[in-house]
Amino acid sequence: MRAHFEKLLKPSENQQQLPFIFPLLISLFSGAIFSLALAPYYWWWIAILSPALLYACLRGRNPKQAWMIGWAYGFGLWFVGAFWLYTSIHVYGDTNAFLSVLMIAFMALVMGLFSAIQTWVYRRFFPETPLTFAPLWVFFEWAKTWVFTGFPWLFAGYAFTERLIDGYAPLFGVFAVSFVVILLAAALVEILNRKLFWIVPSVLVLLGAWGASKIQFVEAKATKPLSVSLIQGNIPQDLKWLTEYQDKTIEIYKNLSKTEWGRDLIVWPESSIPMFQTDVPDLLDEMNEKGIEQHTAWVTGIPYWDLEESKNQGKPMFYNSLVALGDNSIGLYKKQRLVPFGEYIPLSGLLSWVLPSLQNDPSMSGFSRGTSNQQPLNVKGHPLAAAVCYEVAYPNLTRRNAQNSDFLVTVSNDAWFTGTNGPWQHLQMVQMRAKENGRWFIRATNTGITAFINEKGHIVEQAPQDKEFVLRGNLPAMQGETWYTRFSDYPILGFSLFLLILGWIYRPKNVDVSFKSRR
């Protein structure tokens, strides 16, 4: 047994190495190109090439060098992959261009530490093999969902939404897809290094993905489809919160909705009502009565001021929320995860001089987090699991909300990132969440991308960006439960831990010697 694993886990020997500057530059480049694998480019093969180059650059390197190589990769990954933050910081944050780029560079340096620690751990404690590289990658992607509240973006598995190996998503979630991607990437390097036995596990995981795609976890209920209208108001972000434009905003949404009363459900996007519910009681009563009269449910995003909780806490408690009113409909969902620099300002007191125009924006400061035990919205007898904007980036949060639901609904305002890749990457995550949980996702946004996504994660209909639009669809309620909805991330995390334990136990003896000599 030990001899067998030592063969798999044997590190490279007598390997000629390039000067250290070359792997640093190659890693920086490979991280920078990774986002081309994601929406809106969909060059999925780059999700194989990018980590393959990183894996190759780490061969034979000591832990200290591995840290720098990983940090270079992580910096390139986040600086380019999340550069869409520039629009919210510079255009809407009224921060000069140089300082905006500097802030993104700082964010990339901080987020790049995930890759730096990952590669250091890989070369410090484990032998060089895809069987340790892939599970470590999974653990560090998972860590991005909770460390310092998380920034779960740019996962390798998203590159394969709707293609090739996404069959693993309803079984074990996006991290399982990422595991396979990284395993294939590292195996490719080994195959090119003439370790041809890696062809076998590569073929097996691809066949497994094909087989997994044939499993049907869910089916449509024997009820009539839900007729849904999504209202995209296309309100410019720089006008949205202006007092003088608030009535105009509401008028736009009301006018777009006039022809939709009589359908089962009308959905307005995140904060489409740019005032607290305490400021617009007449509007809410009007829409509720209109829905009851026309047999239509109405769901809208609105800032919510919880007066009773504010009294108990001794301070204002504001929430970014989703409310259901109208015919046979009720519910209030308070957002649990808030997005930094797109929704609130981290360390706002210290950064007030950096983002001056955002300090008085109600969408950017003062919101509280909703609790984790909230019930789905109830719409026309259907439980709708809610997610507001950034929350769909959190696989387990969406999974937890999706339990015992018929549909998933998310509202967003991606006007912060108009003209960037951000909204497209965001939409791709919604697709993965639909696939993981086997439910149709109803997605209403202010400026796009408004869409209907089926239980397989495929976009059935979508609205054009940056245009007033009404998107209509008839959606079947789904029943059944995917393995991912039932078991969460535990299977893939447990399997990854198992491989790492094996890698540690059966590591070749000379690995310990090399580690000691490199301290």
From TrEMBL:
Q: Which GO terms describe its molecular function?
A: N-acyltransferase activity
Q: What does this protein do?
A: Catalyzes the phospholipid dependent N-acylation of the N-terminal cysteine of apolipoprotein, the last step in lipoprotein maturation.
Report any Pfam family annotated for this entry.
CN_hydrolase
In the bilayer, the protein is annotated as: Multi-pass membrane protein
Report the locations given in the UniProt record: Cell membrane
Domain spans labelled CN hydrolase? 231-477
State the protein's name.
Answer: Apolipoprotein N-acyltransferase
Membrane-spanning intervals of the chain: 20-36, 42-58, 70-92, 98-122, 134-155, 167-189, 196-213, 490-506
Leader sequence segment? none
Q: Which PROSITE patterns match?
A: CN_HYDROLASE
Question: What's the source species for this entry?
Answer: Acinetobacter gerneri DSM 14967 = CIP 107464 = MTCC 9824
* Superkingdom field: Bacteria
For the keyword Transmembrane, the answer is yes
Q: Print the keywords alphabetically.
A: Acyltransferase, Cell membrane, Lipoprotein, Membrane, Transferase, Transmembrane, Transmembrane helix
Write down the EC number: 2.3.1.269
Where does this protein act, in terms of pathway?
Answer: Protein modification; lipoprotein biosynthesis (N-acyl transfer)
> One GO biological process from the UniProt record?
lipoprotein biosynthetic process
Q: Which GO terms describe its cellular component?
A: plasma membrane
Is the Transport keyword given for this protein? Answer: no
Q: Which family does it belong to?
A: Belongs to the CN hydrolase family. Apolipoprotein N-acyltransferase subfamily.
